[in-house]
Design a protein that fits this description.
The structure is a homodimer.
Chain A (H helix, E strand, L loop, with lengths): L20 E6 L11 E6 L4 E6 L7 H12 L4 E8 L5 H19 L6 E8 L6 H13 L5 H7 L8 E9 L2 E10 L7 E2 L3 E6 L5 H14 L4 E2 L9 E6 L16 H21 L7 E9 L2 H12 L2 H8 L5 H10 L10 E4 L2 E5 L2 E2 L5 H8 L3 E7 L5 E8 L3 H9 L3
Parallel strand pairs in A: 4-5, 9-11, 10-17, 12-16
Antiparallel strand pairs in A: 1-2, 2-4, 3-11, 5-8, 6-7, 7-9, 12-17, 13-14, 13-16, 14-15
Helix pairs in contact in A: 2-3, 5-6, 7-9
């Protein structure tokens, strides 16, 4: 099954190398495809690690082990397998991950616990240990790869390579942050996973790095949805090599902490939005802006209820300013709302205000806006000052085709 | 837009008249369609009333008033408008409902509070009072209608008329229960609502009738889903005229209480399943049976997570025994589960047991089962003895066509 490149795709950005990060890729041949599918990233000694993982109760061994490894706060390598999620594979799946950790640790002379492993692809088939072992050996010997090569190698049903870059000044020292990500939805019988990795040469203490990642995740990765289906393998890791010449950032009082946090959030937001732009069948990128909620968290929940509603998503696919469906989604969110204070608008034009259709509502500019690829949907609840932005895509025949028409 | 009759449609059953219930229908012409769209049901004096309503926080005036009326426990009439939901219409919508209550109360000589009103159709347009007034006057003068006429008149985008019947013996007295329902999903820019009505000649005290309805709803209407989008107007009402000759049922100790409760649940289950059978774009009816949960409520939540997953629904549309997607849905449900105790099967064949694919799994009978229209999906969590059954339909191109391709 060849997927057309998403109409919302962006070209891969210019991204500088990161001191202390070496990328390599090779063919483990997890699937019968003609490209690298095993990515190996070596990290310099002392690299700080932070990570966030799926909340699925059926998470893969990679995720279970990753959670333990993040508590250690240090990493020397990352291995990503594309084509097999190794989820729901019991002890055999866990053995396959531990074998990769051991082989890599022996290669670079570190502890197995410092080797992070991610896998994405089909569920229920243990990762074949022979393919992993040979692929990993090939990767150790491979030429150094670039960011776009690595972003391509970690993909499965992704239709374009996804990367983002930011920099920050820590005093006089400029630090770089480069991120790559994969994910778009699911394809029979694969379950796509969102795997994201951010690399930086900044020096950041692991516990504080984890705090920064948690905060960034709350307003970036946790604010996107394609189809509301949570993967068993979602993983975002941040690696900070500390090669840049500045005092270690270990609290909000550290010089440059604010700048670094802003750059990290910036990269995370760009990566998160790229996943939505590659959403299965997506033809429109939708910004759902919720204001006037009782809290920011409440606003996010309302935003996700709207963004996950198949009726809102199909209305936008049909370029239909159907604000009645938005009313429905707000009503089902279960968050404090009052029908008579609710306002809804598209592309900067209010269609309904304070619980009533706008009297002289002109749908012409709204219809024009909905013909575009970037949609603005605004909801004001009129209850308080909580606000959030959630990003999603529309629901089209393409989603059904990808997930129902093609068989495993 | 003409919709083809659902491939899962059932023919309308034989249903007897109910003593104390008189059906009439007329054309209010809420939309430009060639059929009756205002249904008027007159109920004999002393009819007991119970009802359950949408939990939407953006509910219509009909729902708000209905909640108050149910507390009174008595009804003399029901008026159903099809083609306009009268939701999100503020004080003008409420005035339209109150006008209908007043006109009907004057006609039959009762209190306005004894007149129940439901409306279904487009959101955001106040119900036109002139059409309602003329339609209602025409209904008062109309010939007596049958159950199938009424079931057709309350429909909007429904593709077939939906009714269910049961009887129960209260001592030596046989009582009848007849129900009609409408609902299938949504169509631009209408938001379909699920409106269900059960009529019986049994004599039941209103508070106990409400208890019975709440219990029946928990295992019937609250166990179906088409697309997870909750309407602003969902309403189920039960009217008990008390014309049958038996002692009033007012507690579980009353003779015949068990039999009546079973018959009521039976009618509610049949009506609920009929809505799923008319689910937008549905090609398969799916029984999701969850066992081994820590509680029945937990089982229901897991069942709904599976039934609402677009990936599970598209897999079944594609006749793909993709149990990896079921693992995903269990994992995201947030209920107690353990990957290594989870079992999943289709059509009576286990594909995975205790967290591992079944070694000698033969997909042939499963593939054959999935080609049918009635699908059995079983999930055992291996945690406890909680169980539930949830009913849903698959997600097909038909759903997208109905909700995105056609414009308002």
């Amino acid at each position: 099954m060849d997927l057309a490149v998403s109409p919302l795709a962006l070209s891969f950005p210019e991204m500088p190398p990161i001191d202390g990060v070496t990328l390599r890729a090779a063919r483990a041949r997890y699937k019968d495809w003609n490209r690298a599918d095993l990515t190996y990233v070596e990290l310099s000694e002392g690299t700080a690690l932070a990570g966030v993982f799926t909340r699925s109760l059926c998470a893969s061994s990679e995720v279970e082990l990753g959670r333990e490894q993040v508590r250690g706060g240090r990493a020397r390598a990352l291995v990503v397998n594309a084509g097999n999620a190794n989820a729901f594979t019991g002890y055999r799946g866990r053995e396959a991950v531990e074998a990769i950790m051991k082989q890599t640790a022996e290669h670079i002379g570190c502890l197995p616990v410092e080797v992070l492993v991610s896998s994405t692809g089909v569920i229920g088939v243990p990762l074949p240990q022979d393919k992993a072992r040979q692929g990993l050996a090939a990767a150790f010997a491979a030429d150094i790869a670039g960011w776009e090569d690595a972003a391509t190698a970690i993909g499965t049903t992704d239709t374009f390579a996804k990367g983002a870059h930011a920099s920050a000044m820590i005093g006089e020292q400029r630090v770089e942050l480069c991120g790559i990500i994969k994910g778009s939805g699911m394809i029979a019988p694969d379950m796509a996973t969102m795997l994201g990795y951010v690399f930086t040469d900044a020096a950041v203490e692991p516990a504080f790095l984890q705090n920064l990642l948690n905060a960034a995740t709350a307003e970036t990765f946790n604010c996107i949805t394609v189809d509301g289906d949570t993967s068993t393998s979602d993983t975002v890791l941040v690696f900070a090599t500390g090669k840049a010449d500045h005092a270690v950032i270990d609290s909000w009082e550290s010089p440059g902490a604010d700048a670094f946090a802003a750059a990290l959030t910036d990269v995370c937001r760009n990566l998160a939005q790229l996943v939505v732009r590659d959403g299965e069948g997506a033809s429109k990128f939708i910004n759902v802006r919720v204001s006037g909620a009782v809290s920011d968290d409440s606003a996010r929940k309302v935003g996700l209820a709207i963004a996950n509603s198949p009726l809102v998503k199909t209305a936008i696919a049909g370029e239909d300013a159907n604000w009645g469906r938005v009313v429905m989604a707000v009503g089902k969110a279960g968050e404090p709302a009052d029908r008579d204070r609710l306002s809804i608008g598209f592309g900067g034009v209010w269609a309904a205000r304070d619980g009533l259709p706008v009297e002289d509502y002109d749908e012409t500019p709204v219809a024009e806006h909905l013909k575009g690829k970037e949609i603005e949907l605004a909801v004001d609840l009129g209850m308080g000052s909580g606000r959030a932005v959630v990003w999603t895509c529309d629901l089209t025949h393409g989603y059904i085709s990808i997930n129902a028409d093609y068989r495993s």
